Amino acid sequence: MSSVEVNIVVEGQTEQTFIRDVLAPVMSHQGIYLHPTLIGKPGHKGGDIRFDRALNDISLFIKQRPHGQGYC
Description:
two-stranded parallel ribbon
């Protein structure tokens, strides 16, 4: 069985914790590995995220990943 890695963009620590502590352990038994990643500025509270900010943050995240070029 092959495995799949999924990067999940989240806007707050609550979502990050839920993915990491609840969903990821269950999904890993299926060979699906979830990696929650916070977007936004450190210390900034979540909510009311604008599309342009999300697009920028996600683009920066992808460019930092190995083989990230070409996905954005």
